[in-house]
TrEMBL record:
The keyword Membrane applies. The chain crosses the membrane at residues 48-65, 107-128, 144-162, 209-235, 262-283. Residues 103-283 form the ABC transmembrane type-1 domain. This is NitT/TauT family transport system permease protein. It is a multi-pass membrane protein. PANTHER family: ABC TRANSPORTER PERMEASE PROTEIN MJ0413-RELATED, ALKANE SULFONATE ABC TRANSPORTER-RELATED, MEMBRANE SUBUNIT. It comes from Pseudoduganella namucuonensis.
Amino acid sequence: MSTAAQTVPGLPAGAGEQPSPRGAATGGEPHPPAARSLAEAGARAGHLFLRLASLALCLLGWHWASTHRVDFGLVTFQNVPPPVEVLNAGLDLVRSPKLGQHLGASLARVFAGFAAAAAAGIALGLLIGRSRWAEDVLLPPLEMLRPIPAVAWIPLAILMFPSSEMSMVFITFTGALFPILLNTIHGVEHVDARLVASARSLGSGRLSIFTDVILPGAAPSVVTGLAIGMGTAWFCLVTAEMISGQFGIGYYTWASYTVQNYAEIVVGMLFIGVFGMGSSALIKRLGHALMPWQTEEKKP
């Protein structure tokens, strides 16, 4: 055995060894914070580039198929307007004073219906998720109503509400309600039972368990339901504004279809898509800001 491997009697093992460099098998930080920040910034830039590239690829495919009037048999692009025509129609709408009226009317309807659906869906979801009696009484009729499409509610909404505005808000409400309700129920039912038992063993009452264990545990599912519900509220907008005949992005899209102005149809669709995506992303951001205990797992 070499002398370098021998230990001196009375000294702890490794006392005579030379200190190893920082970060080399000593548990030190292998990468300084600056290098790690640069690596994270590079990764974010790479993800952003891939997302923009995917959108650009879709746009190029749309341009090629529409300009060449491609016919795939089941799907044809012979009457689909190319991106340049859609861009010109969009610029005309942006310059028009009606854009503010269309957007204002649609935003008011969507957010009014979404707010009512969020209040009702979260309250009912928490109740059904925690009470077997409420599940037996309330869930069957709600499950029966859930598959009914928004367009089927139009005649009944006209009969039920005195004004067309309330009818349109009701349509967006029905679209947003069920994703919020079902995700809330799922979140409450899947809270770890060991957390509830631990809180109960430490002397927590029913109210304390509900506020300190159930609500934080179900919050991620609730936020997911809110984001999906916001998207479906925008999804139901065209259906809701078929009642109106006045203003709104959904009405603009439907009216463009009735006069066969195909470029304006796509403009309306893109406006709904952009605002729907943006509002759903805003809900997610607010949800994560209100849940500091929830860490988002990084995808490989």
